[in-house]
Amino acid sequence: MSSAVLPELWLRGVAANPAAPSDVLLRLLTPQARPAWTILCEERDLPADVVEAVVAHPEQAVRRGFARNRHAAPEQRGRLVNDSDARVRAALASGPRPRLGRAVALPDDVLETLLAAQDDNGQGHMLTADEIRQELMLSGQISQSFRRGMPDHPNPELRAQAVGLWLWLTPGRRDALLADSNPAVRETARGHRRILDPAEMEADLPEQGCHYRDLLLVNYAVSHVVAERCLAERRDLWALAHNPHTPGDIITRLARDPDPHVRERVAARADLDPVLLAELAQDPDDTVRNRALLQPLPRAWSERDAIDRIIGKAAQSIGPVDEMLVEPEGSWYESCAASAHPLLRRIAATCPELPEELVRRLAGDADDDVRHLLAYNHPLAPPPIVLDAFIATPRQRPYLRTLSRLPRTGLHQLLGHDDPDVRALAAADTSLTQPPVHLLADPEPRVRRAAAANPLLPLALISSLLNAPRHAEGAAANPNLPAERLHELLDLSGLHPVAIR
Q1: What radius of gyration do the chain's Cα atoms show?
Q2: Which of 53, 72, 103, 231 is deepest in the core (most CB within 10 A)?
Q3: Cis peptide leading into 96, omega within 30 of 0?
Q4: Does the pTM exceed 0.85?
């Protein structure tokens, strides 16, 4: 690697340096430092005065990067909600990148602005307000409490959008939207009323297989005519068995269907007749029988949904789980935590509100997936199991690195680990008795970078590493470097010496 690349490596390292003062970081907002903008604006936390400069920066790339910054508080990012550039507003709506764990909700006033926005046809924006709204809907940044309050929101635009939650609304809320004072809300509600009308669903159902047909058969009211046709043609039976609105006599027939996948869906239902449940508990198929025996009656549909998120998947394929619009009762999660069935304990481990005594219990569980799911999902998960999850589940490491409860010290025993991600974590340990000098020769760049950034290194060694392309970026990120040296690196990189104000 040529020394000609050193200036860019220095810029990137200084941008990541946790000890860099504001006057250093502000210099990185000049156009000459563009290679460092992603690290500076998206990948680290920023002092308040640098945030002020970023949100007012003339370059949309700077503002857009900050709109995606997962280290910034939602209130800080939300200041860009009225940005003149639609790409910046879209970045805010789509949320931090990469998405790691549950997204943190934007403030209510920011959500209302994005959800109620209208296009300004005179501006010629590349992105429409509806496209930005769709990004927000999929981003996880709308809290479920905000969604639940939308049917009663004073803004009629949001009440109209709340109609899209028709299946989850109580009958009283549906009636209120049908009688809303705003004609647009009433009209939208009347259009959605057909969702729970079997005759309307029958009229709307496409004949050929498509996403819309699947949507209707899985969620909407089902007429006997449609159900009988599906039974006769032996298609879409899994969807009927899953749908909470399928008529009871059809469910009885599906419980005896030759396809065990269909019977398993029946066995999971919350409205199952006790006699039918007892029959499925004796099913010859293990999957059907186990699902029937997993939960006694009475059950809730939200419990079925919580089980469906976990069953049949490894912990690292599940990761941190999102809040559901309708969550099971907390007492149900607590009973799951005390269950002898490991699947139910895994479900309990995904609940971030689980009491501390149950967290301690699950932290010592014999089932690896229980401990790993607890590490991903609970704020009180003990650091040792978080570290264990980091080592054992590579797929979730980017998320686990964001957790303050992931141990960063006391990692000496991991310096020689076979996995470079684990070595890199250990290489950054500031409690080591000796600087990790030997890892500067590691074959993996991320390990070398972490070792070069470790403040245990002597300042003279850090200075020499700044001139080595294999180590320059990590060395420039080392918090041992004084501010004067960081300014010198920026000078050598051709940056203007005057900070942006």
Answers
A1: 28
A2: 72
A3: no
A4: yes
